[in-house]
Amino acid sequence: MNAPSREFDVEAIRADFPILGRMLDPDTPMIYLDGGATSQRPQQVIDAEVDYLTRDNAAVKRGAHRMAAAATDAYEGARERIASFLGAPSPDEVVFTKNATEALNLVARSLGDGDSSTPDHLRVREGDEILVTEMEHHANLVPWQQLARRTGATLRWIPMADDFTLDLTDLGSLLTERTKVLALTHQSNVLGTLNPLDRLLEAARAVGALTVVDAAQSAPHMPVDLSALGADFVALSGHKMLGPTGIGVLWGRYEHLASLPPFLTGGSMIEMVHLDHSTFAEPPARFEAGTPPISQAVGLAAATDYLSALGMEQIAGHEKGLTQRALRGLSALEDVRIIGPAAAPERSGAVSFDLAGRHPHDVGQVLDSLGIEVRVGHHCAWPLHRRYGLHGTTRASFSVHTTAAEVDAFVDGVARTADFFRSLS
């Protein structure tokens, strides 16, 4: 990752995002605190996609004409820039998917579809174990449930502790020589908890297990260097990191990708096709069947350029300060329970809370009336909410353009919401 090329000036940054000037009502400015679900896009990202569509739009890798060549250059150039942003050893290890969910499904499906030609360490079969955590987003849980169902493998999970971190007390009995895969999130989308990846990935390597990391919530907010991370596969989503919807990334070690069977089949991912059999292209093309998300890849590359210019360390520092400000404010409010760790080193910028006796949908509706846009519900993490006896939570998530004043308005909005419901009692 390169050093930042611009000063981190939040007001100048806000000017890059045209949607932030929107008024929800004539007298209600928008305070957007839902980047953990979908981030907003700077003009640079919007322009990149529009420029591609108005200048170079064509099918990639399929034509001999100049437009096809320009489109292919834009698409593969985007892959190179994204690989550089992530610290990937090679662009050929970057597979474009439609989101992080598809990336995780790709890995889970391919690990179960191997045959005798697939290396044993890349085949999940009956008797093997898959280890996940109790905090996983459904995207990193349900695919492993399905893999276990198809193959006869056993699904196990690392439980949660009362302090909203993983309970690693029995890790030695959970992560064994039978464990074929350890799949876990880098940062919880609900709790903001940052998992101790160094310890967990090292323990998995010691027993020969493959490691799959869901970085959808971490890659937009802090440095993620794939060359140093030590994982086997990493998934992330473009629309959570200032990029377009409809694009995600699966990074995998090239030797794994080259040995796995394809997830989807059809055009563009083949080597040779006969009526009765086919052979498949080398990665990453093997996993990109059909027409890929070309303009979205261009937009995502522009988003990584934007993040690089700001500097991921600067972004992490900015959001850490906002998170601590929000936690201090919420902690002082009656009837508010913060759902997540309080310690700064163990958490990042997703702040969830429960307002005693009130459904999060009702809380979110009142906040929306104040122009404060947050996420409500179980956040695609039902098992995690059940662990803490919750039907759902209200979550604010911060971004590069979030200001201290917006965080203060959020805390004040929660206080006003609590007062409103108290007045109805």
| Fold-level CATH name of the largest domain | Aspartate Aminotransferase, domain 2
Tally the beta strands: 17
Structural class based on helices, strands and sheet pairing: alpha/beta
Please indicate the percent range of residues in DSSP E strands (runs of 2 or more).
15-25%
CATH class bucket of the largest domain: Alpha Beta
**Count of separate structural domains:** 2
Spatial order of the strands forming the largest sheet: 4-10-9-8-7-5-6
The CATH superfamily title of the largest domain: Type I PLP-dependent aspartate aminotransferase-like (Major domain)
The overall pLDDT average reads 96
Rounded to an integer in angstroms, the radius of gyration calculated over CA atoms is: 22 Å
The CATH architecture designation of the largest domain is 3-Layer(aba) Sandwich
Topology:
Blueprint: H1 10-14, E1 23-25, E2 28-29, E3 31-32, H2 43-55, H3 66-86, E4 94-97, H4 100-112, E5 129-133, H5 142-151, E6 154-158, H6 171-174, E7 179-185, H7 197-206, E8 210-214, H8 226-229, E9 233-237, E10 248-252, H9 254-257, E11 270-273, E12 278-280, H10 294-310, H11 312-331, E13 336-338, E14 350-355, H12 360-369, E15 372-373, E16 375-377, H13 382-387, E17 393-397, H14 404-424
Helix pairs in contact: 2-10, 3-10, 4-5, 11-14
How would you portray this structure in words?
Helix content is 37%, strand content 16%. The protein is globular. Helix 3 runs parallel beside helix 10. It folds into two domains: 10-42 and 311-424, Aspartate Aminotransferase, domain 1; 47-308, Aspartate Aminotransferase, domain 2. The chain has 14 helices and 17 strands. The strands form five sheets. The protein has a seven-stranded mixed beta sheet, with helices on both faces. A four-stranded antiparallel beta sheet has the order 13-14-17-16, covered by helices on one side. It is of the alpha/beta class and 425 residues long. The mean pLDDT is 96.
